[in-house]
## 1
Amino acid sequence: MDFEQLNNLKGFMPSHEGLALTKWAEEFSHYGPVLEIGTFGAKSTLYIAAGSSIHNQLVYTIDHHSGSEEHQLGEDYFDPEIYDEKLGRVNTVPLMQANLQQFDESKWIVPIIANANSIAPSWKIELGLLFIDGSHTEISAMNDYDNWNSKLHSKGALVIHDIYEKSEHGGQAPYLIYQKALTEGFQLHERVDTIVCLTHS
Ligand SMILES: C[S@@+](CC[C@H](N)C(=O)[O-])C[C@H]1O[C@@H](n2cnc3c(N)ncnc32)[C@H](O)[C@@H]1O
């Protein structure tokens, strides 16, 4: 993996947290494939694949590709490059494709264009690592945690991004599901800045 090239991609994964993802993906894909909620341009997905490909494991990555609340027209993270005039909405599929085709590790990545809530009820594959980086509304983050944490292998890891203890530093939804996980049998394995890795206690 060319990490310098990867770090230059458009996305929401700084390199120090991305490298933690790579390390955890290598460690926990020993127990099964990885599933990510929130592909965007597949920057985090590629960090994961750099680790999980060592065990020949796939990375399933789910996104409806219409963007989260903060990516919409007029919102804080709106970016005209990911707005499709013909569709009249955000569409991050072309960005994902352009990013994936630059890296050999893409052969381990399986993009799923869907709402994560719709896929969960029929998902049967036991996961080595679950990475939650979808919408940061409280209801969406809770759905991601509630719908998916039971899909993990007993020795697998739950990784959550954008943990901010104080609301003045960032949205609280990821922090709330982190707290919930700690009351439901998970314990902190490691943390790097705003990204946490939990395992079953
Ligand atoms: C913060 S971005 C993900 C950033 C990405 N992991 C990266 O490294 O750049 C969140 C993504 O979650 C997606 N999303 C939000 N709610 C979703 C849902 N219910 N199902 C699938 N994708 C969702 C949005 O479309 C958006 O692309």
## 2
Amino acid sequence: MVRLSRRTILLAGSAWAFAGGGACDVGTQTTARPSLSIPPELRADAAGSIKLDAQAGTMRFLGDRETATYGVNGPYLGPALRLRRGETVTVQVTNSVPENITMHWHGLIIPGAADGGPHQVIAPGKSWRTQLSINQPAATLWFHPHYYPSTAQVVIKGLAGLLIVDDEEAGRLPLPSRWGVDDIPLIIQDRRFTPDGQFFDRMNAIAVTNGYVGDIALVNGARYPEARTARGWIRLRILNGSNARGYKLRVSDNRSFYVIASDGGLLASPVELKELQIFAGERFEMLVDGRDGRAFDVVALPVAQGIMRLPPFDGPLPLVTIRPDGADGAGRLPSSLAVLPALPWRLPPVSQELAMNMFHDMRGMMPLQQAGLPAMIQSGKTDPAVVARVADLIVGDSALSQAEQLSSNGVNRKPFSLERIDFTAARDKDLRWRISEGRDRMPHPVHIHGCQFRIISRDGEPPEPERAGWKDVAPISNGGVTEILLRFPYSASRDDPYMAHCHILEHEDSGMMAQFTVS
Ligand SMILES: [Cu+2]
């Protein structure tokens, strides 16, 4: 069950135009469709080493126009790293792009020195070698740069990839697991292009307040691609790799799907849903029954946040078509998946508060109000004049100075500083943290490095069943409070601290991040 706040319902109102079955049966259109590209799997070589090269390239996202891009071992996005529990690998990341980056292993439980946070800078032309010892359950994780304060811009250009942990327990389950055949990765991102076909990217007041607002959805780097898959149960490994946008996903013919895993691994048992909300940085794995061989689309429905409801996100938007009409698949849906430790009956006291703050949100909200956006959302009808005015603000509002950018947002009333350790957490101990939001009414998907945690409660209620397993992103919204139970098995020093931050990358790059040591 997805719980709806009063405000969500209010905003949804009559604009909820989704008409149920068949409304998105656009998969049969005859124009040429791009094939879904499947990122190649990359395992450690015989010497236990993996080489990643962040490089510049070009892609054609829009017909014949070339867009300058970044990618890892390719022009856009990267390979799917596959690591096994118990394995230790050496990763060498080379920076062949003309700006500073880092490489962060999002969701991997590793010491601060290997984490690839903002302190582990890889200058252009340089390499960074680190060891990763894998000791956590099978999960769909990902990697992306984490350089402060320009993570957003390099992720927009394409620096991100999947990191999949495999283990014996998950391997014993009969889940679909043939990569690209019945085990399909979907990296969902939104983008906006300039008139000359380049990625739009500007840190103005609209962006640091609302996050990046694209007007095109890409899946694995293509617009509305299609995939031929095995006929049978199809596993979709979904990464919301968007800078800011959250999605409410549905399958086009209204068939149920079964969520089997959250950020950090398998759930206890599958969760049957018709709709799944996925915030920036989150991953879910789901199984869809494709035994009938009928094509279906994964569709994005409008979300509560007004600016994220601009066209084409103002109605059901098909993201990708899956045609399960190949050879018979072998996977199936087990009734139970993994043993998740029960939350302790007696919870530890709250040892850390993390309040997400927006110091100048009115600077980014007022112009939208003046442009008539909230009124349009309330009316439930898309008004081209309002859409044009808001689009003018998104692209036309001038960039903030760096000083303005870095002081726009914060955690616990302070904008991020690389020089200040914000707090210390105890190692190897159950900890309870309380994450909250001010009065800005923005969703903030909060990511904590160095651990996988469990959500104790969200606004006083238990988490949705699909968020009751291992998580590394805790969404908070509508002035809410989320409590989490976490444990750090490794240390993080003053030189290599862990980060706790909002995964809206424009918030992260404008101060909504804190750093902490573990000892
Ligand atoms: Cu945020």
